[in-house]
Sequence to fold (519 residues):
Amino acid sequence: MVNNTASAAESWTPARPDAAGPREVTPVKLTFDKPSPPTKGLVAALVTEDGKFGPALAGLDAEAKGAIRAAMKTAKFTGKPGSALDLVAPRGLSLDRLVLVAAGKIATGAEQDWVRLGGAVQSKLASLGEAATLLLDLEGHAPSPAQAADVGLGVRLACYGFDRYKTKKKPEDAGDRLGKLSIQVEGHTAARRAFARREAIADGVDLARDLVNTAPNDLGPPEFARRCEELKTLGVEVEVLDEAAMRKLGMRALLGVGQGSVRGSRLVVMRWKGAGGQPLAFVGKGVTFDTGGISIKPAQNMEDMKGDMAGAACVTGLMHALAARKARVDAVGIVGLVENMPDGNAQRPGDVVTSMSGQTIEIINTDAEGRLVLADALWYCQNRFKPKFMIDLATLTGAIMVALGTENAGLFANDDALAEELAGAGKATGEKVWRMPLSSDYDKMMDSTVADMKNSGGRYAGAITAAQFLQRFVNDVPWAHLDIAGTGMAAKATDLNKSWGPGFGVRLLDRLVADHYEA
Fold:
């Protein structure tokens, strides 16, 4: 097993010397300002379903002697969700441009509707100018400071762009073309305060996105660990265990996955101490690249396996968010970082490894590696920190995508209350989860004839048997497993995210903490 950091660092070539570092593009600068009739520049205003709009836009229409309403009629623009009307140099006004953004039935909508509205505004304005003003009012409804802050969160989430590998950048390559947005709303001071928390969350999401999007030659286990160490500037305590330390602890399940790579494995422990008491624990699978090992994957789409560390990316982004908003909670984030490669030192199907728990595991398939990483990480977490609960996140199985597609993460839990809290957080944030079964009948499928268990139960119920495997390493600690194979990478474009790596899970888990566990 390789444990030589110097030789690992010399054995690969980065795409660019700084490519694994912080973001290059500055996010849009958001301000919340007192409503004032705009007289110049790029302005956006909201139109609800059936073509209704609020007092600010009504004032502009009166100034333009009904030209706005006439343009809407000509264009047959009624405020249907997803639509917009772009008026260049609108007649009767001194504005450069007026963009009417459809808000649907937003006045009666849920929190997520306001966040999505912010994403829609960003999407409509992104390519139209460097600075803009949003008139945030509606007919018969003055958005609350929290709703205004949710719009701001949507704008921030939507403006993310990943273009650090582009040497000849086109406007469409980056999401941050809008440099400044002034949101005019009643209660602007309170909205500004409410947005501070949401901005910290958006920064955590962006960090998770950056990690998932970064090329694997720039983000092996050592480089990922260094990114985690940057959280020290926010007050997070960070401890990095190298292979020697993990071997001493008996983490041979995790180490076996990485033994075929020249890049040494790492286990990173991140602690945010915001309240005292029993900590909450979040554990992430961090396979920085997964070839499948000896059980090698097909070549087609293997490049996507740079995202097999999306669980670890989420945990890192979450720890950033909790620290940046100074969450009143104690939390520990643990990420197991390995690279699964098929060299002459790689583990083989048929090998038997001993986990930190002392339980032995027969290796049936070296591409069922994430559960081996989590097995030792979960055992270490529960033994050292005695947490209130453990939640792990992993791009663990293709089987969960067969069951749920890309709309929901698979949720497995040994605790009904924790499962219900996660489902509620998913509904509130739009990062949806769907509970899947656990039972002793499925657990038997993981029994081995030569060891305590095997690491693959076969083709059927693959996501469930993977969760059953993990459950053997959590004892009686309240625990939930989120299989994010369908939601953590290769995301479809939406108003809130156009990035391959969506940063899934940061908002979900932050909301869980905020709603149920903060002091």
The mean pLDDT is 92. The first strand starts at residue 29 and ends at 33. The CA atoms of residues 56 and 135 lie 7 Å apart.
